[in-house]
UniProtKB/TrEMBL annotation:
This is Asparagine--tRNA ligase. Keywords: Aminoacyl-tRNA synthetase, ATP-binding, Cytoplasm, Ligase, Nucleotide-binding, Protein biosynthesis. It catalyses: tRNA(Asn) + L-asparagine + ATP = L-asparaginyl-tRNA(Asn) + AMP + diphosphate + H(+). GO terms for cellular component: cytoplasm. The lineage of its organism: Bacteria, Bacillati, Bacillota, Bacilli, Bacillales. It is found in: Cytoplasm. Gene3D superfamilies: Bira Bifunctional Protein, Domain 2 (3.30.930.10), Nucleic acid-binding proteins (2.40.50.140). The keyword Nucleotide-binding applies. The gene is asnC. Homodimer.
Amino acid sequence: MKKISIQDMPKHVGETVKIGAWLANKRSSGKIAFLQLRDGSGFVQGVVVKANVSEETFAAAKSISQESSLYVIGEVTEDTRSSFGYELQIQEIQVVSEAHDYPITPKEHGVEFLMDHRHIWLRSKKQHAIMVVRNEIIRATYEFFNGEGFKKVDPPILTGSAPEGTSELFHTKYFDQDAFLSQSGQLYLEAAAMALGKVFSFGPTFRAEKSKTRRHLIEFWMIEGEMAFYEHDESLEVQEQYVAYIVQSVLKNCKLELELLGRDTTKLENIQAPFPRISYDEAIELLHEKGFDDIQWGEDFGAPHETAIAEHYDKPVFITCYPVGIKPFYMQPHPERNDVVLCADLIAPEGYGEIIGGSERIYDYELMKQRIAEHGLDEEAYAWYLDLSKYGAVPHSGFGLGLERTVAWITGVEHVRETIPFPRLLNRIYP
């Protein structure tokens, strides 16, 4: 007898198989028991008919408790009533481990309770669906970058300097030196791009920002790309192609999950390159037209501003050329203006905010030294980074995409805390 996973059931219609699973829920109507089973790869209904099984098997079906683990043996049949399309006609149940008093029952629970039990909340259908979509985005990310000729590089997590200043970094001691948890692998990727041409990374980043909004995490994962001999507009083309690629991959490969989450997929089907682009100047004008008189030129946008701008479009929108004063030291100045830089933030639709930040990088040695000094950074700590502008400098550009915000947008989940297995929030480091 073949042992299979739930996701492989469509390949075994009419066969008797064995599946290791947990009992997510159950109901019975006298002589029939319906077991909702999950095994990590998916969910399926198992049907136990009293007349077709032993007394022991039917007794087990009636008595087994939520989240007990078991092996079930039965025939795979088609079931057009379910979104999965298949069910299991159970012939035998082998209990592996009985669970008692499972904390998360089929009723409403408060957010804090669920967060305290995140280690088991992950087992629920909605959380499972979000994690499957997250995994698909990661899979498609590797597929996209590999297909475009990028090499994966792994920047360090412990760093001796800060890519964007030191105000939001976690400080630690590195033996007898100061060190920080990385807020971005960008500077190291720039060095790698000078060796490998086009590179990308995927890893954890940390921000010691005391924010409690639905868009913020203390620890999150970022996909970053860096490209030698790429100017600003060329980088924007890569970014929009990448975002369109992962959205279409999710639509293709996560139909069941999006349906379970109640996601309006018509909004996602429209996500195709190219994306609209407006300048920071135009964004300020648009906000004033919409009644946001509080925002003035030179100020950064908050969540309400980004949402208002995004509502003007049915795709993600690039806001380009922000003022020098609100952007990091390494961004290339605009060729015709000294008050803005060649950068862009990509704002997702439906109020999910910025999902990508990117720019063309400075490659003039003297200008880079000047900017490091203007930002009050220690030139000695950045000596290795300055070498990139000294030895064979070239125009180059890059960007970083926040995975959790992107998952939230694509799934339609309200808060980023549900888009990462174990979220780290301002007041939460458990479990």
